[in-house]
Design brief:
3 domains, Nucleotidyltransferase, domain 5, 5-stranded mixed beta sheet
Length: 467
């Protein structure tokens, strides 16, 4: 009816706020409807829960669900609800229970809940877990493995804690003051260093400790010159070879701990894989402790290089390192008490083609199909080509009871990683400028991995007829 130039101009006219909002709401409702239907077909599901306070001071409860789909175990956002009052276990339960009743979901089909270690979540009387136990006595709770790993690495000896505190004070003196930051950056440029600034440390960011210490150790000579020029009292610490040795060790050990933390992160990672990562790190801790017992610190390259180029007495430093590694071993054993027995008991799930004592714990009715499965060469070829969860979904078609039993073990979340990542998306969606936004529908639409059924949505809408 009009020329191309006018048509292109009309295309640039944005939709109204209400129109965009309605479409986001419709898409969100459609996506959650798909997820709920898949949960009902799966029969059993696991939840991942976490809570945060957003920019407007509202408490947001976020939930992800993990369920068996047609050919694999999938995970998806289930809801993000604003808590009306306190963040107590009872309030958390009421919000989840209301969602379940609204969508006709049954608590008895929820097999596992994964949360952090907050009392409101884990309390057996007034916590969320205690209230859920009343409606489903068979439900199991999983403490986030990444959270446990961070707690196990948190405590240090007074000597190492003092080094950490001094390092934070040095970094804050330079980074938190704009003039000092600019002057230090100029100094680094003049010296031709690879990096020209230090990194701030915060306990909320679990990986920041290793990165902060590593950067400070790398720029320690430039930091010493800068602190000396500004007559800072901590400049003498950077001249102390013993203090630098402790700094080097902390940078080494927390860099290794960061590698573990990163390996535990990621989507669609089953619990057995996370258990294996933690067990591997625990074995390395024991190896490092044995090496230190013989005076060998080659596992920590920064410390080893520092001791080789200075006249610091190795004995006291090695003894301090050994004590810290021993403490780490003790703390990991405390926070992962269940890991060794449960991990070995499920070896038949990891690889059903290797006969092991773990299969003896299975009932006789499951041992027989497991023996048949171990001799099936077709399934053995499929095992090499597919992921573990995809493989057991295939097995369930031929050996229903055995496959279902294995999938139940692979169903629970091992961490609250998905919630933490989604909270980052929430902070980008709900900002100071949009602090009155009801974030649930926008967040579900933004992070969903399920496409909306657009044909169905358009079919349900009435077209705008001409007047």
């Amino acid at each position: 009816m009009i020329d191309k130039k006018a048509a292109d101009a009309l295309k640039k006219v944005p939709l109204s706020n209400n129109t965009v909002s309605r479409r986001i709401n419709d898409i969100s409702v459609n996506i959650i409807g798909q997820v709920v239907n898949k949960i009902k077909l799966a029969g059993q599901f696991a939840l991942q829960l976490d809570e945060m306070t957003d920019v407007s001071g509202e408490a947001q409860l976020l939930s992800f669900v993990r369920y068996k789909d047609v050919s694999d175990i999938n995970e998806h956002i289930l809801f993000c609800k604003t808590l009306p009052g306190k963040t107590t276990g009872e309030e958390l339960f009421q919000v989840i229970d209301s969602f379940f009743k609204e969508h006709d979901l049954q608590w008895k089909t929820c097999s596992h809940i994964c949360t952090d270690g907050a009392a409101a979540m884990t309390g057996r009387v007034k916590g969320l877990f205690g209230h859920v136990k009343k409606v489903n006595p068979d439900i199991k709770w999983m403490h986030c493995i990444i959270h446990r790993e961070a707690l196990a690495s948190k405590r240090m000896s007074p000597d190492l804690s003092a080094v950490m505190d001094d390092a934070v004070k040095i970094i804050n003196f330079i980074q938190s003051r704009p003039l000092n930051h600019r002057l230090f950056e100029t100094l680094c440029h003049e010296n031709g260093t690879e990096h020209d600034q230090l990194l701030l440390h915060t306990d909320v960011r679990w990986l920041s400790r290793g990165e902060t210490l590593l950067r400070l150790h790398e720029l320690r000579n430039q930091v010493f010159v800068f602190l000396t020029e500004h007559l800072h009292p901590l400049a003498v610490e950077l001249e102390d070879a013993k203090w630098v040795a402790r700094l080097a060790y902390l940078a080494d050990v927390f860099t290794k701990r960061n590698e573990l933390n990163l390996s535990l992160q990621g989507k669609e990672s089953h619990i057995l894989k996370l258990y294996d990562k933690v067990q591997g790190f625990t074995k390395k801790l024991k190896l490092w402790e044995r090496k230190c017992d013989g005076g060998d610190v080659s596992c920590f390259p920064l410390l080893d290089a520092h001791l080789a180029t200075t006249d610091v007495a190795r004995g006291p430093v090695v003894k301090l390192v050994q004590a810290h590694l021993s403490k780490l071993c003790t703390d990991f054993s405390h926070y992962f008490q269940d890991i060794e027995n449960k991990s070995e008991r499920l070896d038949w799930v990891r690889n059903p083609f290797i006969v092991s004592e773990s299969s003896n714990s299975l009932p006789a009715r499951l041992q027989e199909p497991l023996m048949e499965l171990s001799s099936d060469r077709g399934l053995k070829m499929a095992y090499a080509e597919k992921t573990l969860t995809e493989f057991w979904c295939d097995v369930e078609k031929e050996y229903p009871e055995l496959g279902k039993h294995a999938l139940i073990e692979l169903l629970p979340f091992g961490s609250t990683y998905m919630c933490e990542v989604t909270f980052s998306a929430l902070t980008h969606i709900k900002t100071k400028q949009r602090n009155r936004l009801d974030v649930e529908t926008s967040l579900v639409t933004a992070v969903s991995t399920l496409p909306p059924e657009l044909s169905k949505l358009m079919k349900d809408k009435q077209a705008q007829v001409s007047h």
